[in-house]
Amino acid sequence: MVSIRADVQLIRVGDESAVAAWLVSLTVDHLEDFRTIWKDRLRTSADADQYWDWEQKQRLYLGSGEGRYEGYAIECEEMTQGLMLLQIQGQRSQVEPTRPLVYILSLATAPWNRITAPDPNGFRAVGRVLLKFAQFRSEELGYGGLVGLHSLPNAEKFYRKMGMLEGGTDAAKENLTYFEWYRRRPSLLEEMGIEIESDE
Known about the structure:
Elements: E1 5-12, E2 18-25, H1 28-43, H2 54-62, E3 69-76, E4 79-87, E5 102-109, E6 123-124, H3 126-140, E7 147-151, H4 156-161, E8 165-170, E9 176-181, H5 188-191
Parallel strand pairs: 5-7
Antiparallel strand pairs: 1-2, 1-6, 2-3, 3-4, 4-5, 7-9, 8-9
């Protein structure tokens, strides 16, 4: 798996200040934060991901399929603020099925960072930073920035706001709505910077 540590910025809810954070490769320390801190907070929420088990996800995805999956976390103030699992091989665009994309298997922010339970000491921009990193990985892998995911109902508004195309509900994925960041592949002439004039 790619090992990364990138400087990012989050916004503190209480005073709108920018706070330094790090986007890093997923480790057992992040899963420990989930187990000992996130879980109790999620149990009392109405969020659809309250039953997600990131430890199990880590075993299923990162423990098998070498090179096919990647996991990332955002750290800030010595706490895990967000988690994301990617599938970087074996998924294709629903708009243009010949093109591969990065598929987001799971993305979650810590309970105190959510709009549904605002905390003045929580942070905004965690989900956006993770999503934009998935797009960055897609570009790095030569996929042209294509990213796909199936959204939980309470997150659909966020993905629309991020400019993702809505592909409708998917019966194979518990009727969750599919979203995709799609970019048309430039033609050879466009890549060379040649414009074609039209007579129209």
